[in-house]
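pinging the channel bc i need a second pair of eyes. not urgent but kinda urgent?? the chain im working w is below, pasted from the shared doc
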Amino acid sequence: MLDPTDLLDAIVGKLRLVPEIVAALDGDIDNIFAYTDQFPEQTNVRDALLTQPRPSVMVMWQASGPGMLGRNETWKHRFSLYVSPAKGTDPFALFRLIVSGVPAGGAVRLLNAQMHAAVLPMDVPTFSRGAVVMDAEGHTLDYYEVGMTLTEIGDY
């Protein structure tokens, strides 16, 4: 099984290669970043969502488990991309770029690109409105979530 952290870094790296995604995030590649738990200081997803800068895409590992590749068992890894668009912009535009954007130097759109050499291109992703998160002062935050699943090609 691959280390999910390696896949997390690969996803962030691939998203940063799409000029249109970077442009939609104020032209700053640092607005595409990974969330990783760091015990005991950083283990609160709610806090991460509340402090996520706007605009940005925060990539987070959610789960790894068994899956099928043809008739063979393999590992599947599920990630969430939390999309926080710039105020007044269309969140669906970022979703379309995450699916259809072409990384610099690449020939295929992200949907068909390998994020890492040891995994297949992503399954068709989901796009949904996340649950409303409320901060300590009672302010609410809506966010959007892209669900991405990667399937390992072999046993690593």
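so DSSP finds four helices and seven strands in the chain. and The chain has one domain: 4-151. — does that match what u expected or am i reading it wrong
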